[in-house]
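## tool: complex_structure
## caller: assistant
## args:
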Amino acid sequence: MYLIADFREQPKLEAAILALKAAGITADDMDVFSEEPVELRRGILDRPSRMSLVSVLGAIATGGLATVGLYAAQQSYRLVTGGMPIFSFWGTGVISYEATMLGAVLATFGWFLWESGLLRKRDKNIPVPTVLPGVMCLRVRCFDPHVTRARQILDSAGATDIARKEVA
Amino acid sequence: MSIDLDRCTGCEACVVACHAENNLPVSSPDQAEKGRTAHWIRVDRYYEGEFPDVKVKYRPVLCQQCDNAPCEPVCPTYATYHNAEGLNVQVYNRCVGTFYCANNCPYSVRFFNWFAPEWPEPLQLQHNPDVAIRPAGVMEKCTFCVQRIQRGKRDAVVENRPLADGEIQPACVQSCPAEAMVFGDLNDPESRVSKLAGSGRSTQLLGELGTKPKVFYLERAK
Amino acid sequence: MAASVPELLPYAKIREDLFRPLSSGSSRYWITVFAALAVVVLGMAAWGIQVRDGMGVTGLNRPVFWGFYIVDFVFWIGISHAGTLISAILRLTDAAWRKPVTRAAEAITVFCLMIGGMFPIIHLGRSWLFFWLIPYPNPRMLWPNFRSPLLWDLVAILTYVTGSVIYLYLPLIPDMAQLAEHNVPWRRKLYRILSLGWTGSDREWHALERAMKLMACIILAVAVSVHTVVSWDFAMSIAPMWHSTIFGPYFVSGAIFSGIAALLLVLGILRRALGLELYLTKHHFDNLSKLLLLMSLLWFYFTFAEYQTVWYGNEPSEMAVFASRIRGLYAPYFWIMVVCNFVVPFVLLGIRKLRTISTAMISSVCVIIGMWLERYIIVVPTLGNPRMNTASGVYTATWIEFAITAATFAGMIVLYLLFSKLFPIIAVWEFKPHAVEED
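## result:
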């Protein structure tokens, strides 16, 4: 069951989230919807991210693959050009570098699609609030014993509109 | 190859022979004015002094088949590379026409096929069947008459004998009336060209660039 | 001192202003698009003639084997650095004034790369075989030569295009979600697909912001390398006055220079044409002008250092090129370049009283012309004065090269106009209501 509350001021939203967390509702059950990014203070609704790590790993993997590929290609097609050695890191280092960067780009984009949830199959039954400009919507997932308590918290925190949506 | 500049008279028989042997395209006067002639070997003239004490120096310039060729590493499709015999080969089929090799050649010995080649009647009947006709869009240059090298090697194998020094002669070497040009195996220390290349009169064109050219110009030390 | 509180722009007005260009299309707009398309078609016909008849229809010759096409190539790839500087560096330094400018800049990057990337194909003697540079499986087991700077170009530009498109697309997603209620059905579908089902949840925003920050760092690293690699097409050769270590930094700073100029020009035009005076304010143009001035000084420094070094070294083959550029055949182009790149920006933008939006746009046009001439000065005189001076020659471009060059400018106009009609040119979500500035 979902409660959707509209807030117009950020401090009130933050207070509501903290109070809800104190009442036992986890950060995973809460989502804030807005038309522009809301900068909540640290510790309120932190979402741990592995994006930097994935980006670096993607970069290293692609760069390494490219270098190995270059080595194999040069060795299998040993044509002499000028005085240059058949494989030299200086001769092909640029390509390794660009491949590393490309790996970082693709890894970042791919992980973004995953981490944001855009790429995952969305459960059509979960309500998505339509957000008006200047409004921050807090969507809380809670179950029967907690619902009234959650409603109280949202009310006292200053939500302008509280709707209750059942999951169909 | 060695070219004796003290013997060269600047007659350009080598240029004509090369044209005939290698199916070089014939240019037209206005294309020539635009700088689009192709002479795989050309004779550069240097004038010194004022009339009437003018001295003219001739230097036939052809592809130097550099061991450290600047044109080779820059070709993206390996259309030019160094083969096992030490020749700088030009593979017409592989050339896509990036022009990079020509820009990097310090001797300016590379030529491009700006149009599909044409020959005024009846020159097209004179084509050498051993040499490809290059299509438009492809770079070309002196090959040390690789078709003659191949024929010489093949004949030696067929007749079951080693190649004799001086047996293979590119068209320019063959046609020089002053016998200024000598062609042979630089790896063989007994060959005539090796001895000339090692002589006191031997110089290299733009040798200071480190291209390691394989054409040695013999001139009297000044 | 004004006694009243500065008026804040309401959300509704921002959205209306920034979304309006997407629906209204004046006749002036469509005439421009079709005129530009006509020029593009002419350029394509010119290229067709070149492919059919051979490279001889251009002005290229021996020894000037590279001409307009390579100049255009370096020029367009250079301008593509606009987006990278503004977007990435300003995003990383958290400069607030970048907000209305980033998407316009990123769009310039993507389109310039697409246009510039055509030239390595157009300039080929056998263009239809360009794909031989790509390592693809083939029955002869042939590989391209990875040691060639042209292969480095290929990989660098592909990476930069991929990165730039993603960098343009990421901040576009929230705007696509907002536009998904557009009234024209095909557009509604387009926006909905492009928005990837964006709902505006904080998870999505966090992921987006993290991705943008990472992409800014990566794209900066890529951009610096891309134009360095393009400059190495020249620096890796041993042609006189090309084989110089300064080319890497010289070209990157020149690229950023021409990129800022292009961005300034585009923003100036957009501001007037789309009625965005409240969003692209004098403050933005002032900041961009100062950046342009800074890059002009940097350009002058690098150019001076390069020429001073050559002159002092007095090496004969380099001095032949030097003389050709400064006093010889190419002297008019050289000195016009110096005036356009240095004197005009220095005067118009350095003197505070003269620094207005109009003078900034004049400076930008001059810089764009000057930077095109700079590329020309780098490419042609060196090739025209080879080491063996018996082979020296002069290059005169033909109508084919002019047509194709003009077509690229027209193509840029078409792409940009179509983009500004399909997508909001200012990122709506990044634009919080701000006080209306005295203009």
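## assistant note: The longest strand of chain A covers residues 2-7. The first helix of chain A runs from residue 10 to 22. Handing back to user.
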